[in-house]
Amino acid sequence: MSEIAAAGVRPAWRTRPGARAEAARGAPDARRLLQLALAGIWLLDGVLQYQAFMFSKGFSDMISGTASGNPRAVASPITWNASLVQHHLVLVNAIFATIQVLLGIGIAWRPAVRVALAASIAWALGVWWFGEGLGMVLTSAASPVNGAPGAVILYALLAVLLWPADRPGRLAPFTAARAVGAPVARALWLVLWLSLAWFALLPGNRAPQALHDMIAGMADGEPGWLAGLDRGAASLLARQGLAASVVLAIALVIVAAGVYLPARYARGTLVLAIVIAAVIWVFGEAFGAILTGGGTDPNSGPLLALLALAYWPTRAAVTRPAPAPAAAAIAEGTTAS
Amino acid sequence: MIPSWILDIFAAIMLLVAVVSAARLAAARPWGGGRRAALADIDLAHLLMAIAMAGMLVASLQTLPDGAWEAVFAVMTAWFAYRVLRDAQVSGVRALAGGHCAPHLIHAGAMLYMFLAVAAPIAHGSGGMSGMGGGMSGMGTLELPFLAFLFALALVGYSIWDLDQLSGPGTSGHYSLAVAGAPSAPVLTGVGAPAGPGATAVLTEPASHPMVTETIETAPEVPPASAPADGTGVLAPWVATGCRIAMGITMAFMLVIMI
Q1: Structural domain of residue A143, as residue ranges?
Q2: Is A21 among the domain residues?
Q3: Which residue of A has its CA nearest to B142?
Q4: How sure is the predictor about B1, in pLDDT bands with cuts at 50, 70 and 90?
């Protein structure tokens, strides 16, 4: 193919800069872009882990606090981990931070993407248990508004759904279905969002002041404008806990079912999912409390939005033949090994 | 309190970036004019930012007073804003999304912000970030922390994008190890450029940037336009991108720990 052909019918010298290459290479792959977003969040996580707070006793206290309310079998390893962190605070936290930075770099570095994604799954599962108390899903404290089922488990879920492999000859109606297939991907989505709906209706979350207290509590240590937003939202929900929880649960159920609807309706529910994720992130999670200097990650909001994008119906469902090994390796950056 | 050895490591990386950038400037001889002169601003920016960041991380590496650095980065921000606007006239929004000057604009803006927004600088401590204030951990805090967060997000985003482009086929005209290191190798070439004998060539995009190289499919007999004599050794494009990645991550680190 000639240079002119690569750019279309226009001669090269008339082509907009970059258009030739773009035409030659094709549009950026949606899955790769989502992988890069995941890489960026991991890298941000790693950087956040270097904050001064994480080198203080407050970090080990934060970990040990997640043992509370969990069954003994779950809580004991958390307590052990908190003790380990407390006794070797600087070394352990520096290792934690560096691992997360390397995970981000590895996912972004094409030859390492598979290794990094696999490592991220293992790491996320470990942190989910030993650092987040399984997202408190086994306690009465889990709420979609404060980050249940645990942000870090969403990293693992995304790594699975964005795994750089394609099911040959299968229809991929959305990006998340490319590696695991549409039925599995839809089932994972359904379980996630239905569980969020379930958490929203837990007694502790539907109490009259539950949401108010949860959101108002996020204002502590935040910049004035964000604290004001939190307090405003909290005042709107004062004594409205039950109604707000029911409305939230209904919205979450609609989102959960959305991926089984025709594409045009699915898109609507995915937009709803992104809106819910944004509202949770701003009001319920205060941007993961990053602005207080004590946030270990951006919390679940951005991950939920990223998941929704992975389920966005593609305009033309692509039947993917088994790619030639070399081409597949090039596209997914797995050639180095 | 952040252990000083962590700050030392980041400072050492910045010193390495400064040395590499200085070597690139010296090897390119930009005073001779031509294409290489047009690239000097990027290497010069890397050099200055790396020196300033090393001084912010480790007190003993401080060189200029904060006021001087503020002036330097104000000028640098204005320069790259001009470059981005100029690129935008040619390539539109692509100048922001994938242009070469937009990341440098963000870098320069973040540096200016860090020097201007640090709250209540106190006496220099022994740990680091001494020029940026004091406090229990020897670090300053930044006013408008949300702006620090946004800068950190942008820096992380550009660093991740650069890593992706450096390690595989690019879509924004960024440099690629595949192009710089092994232009004829079938691996890591453009997605849309099926590998094959002589299937790739390095072309130049003078309208976008003098050294923007792209890998596109072309006839094997077409020689690389403007043979990349300055694409080897320390002048290899991936070296500059590598410096940018290191600085982006380090800068994001500094912004976050000063929130």
Answers
A1: 28-313
A2: no
A3: A291
A4: confident
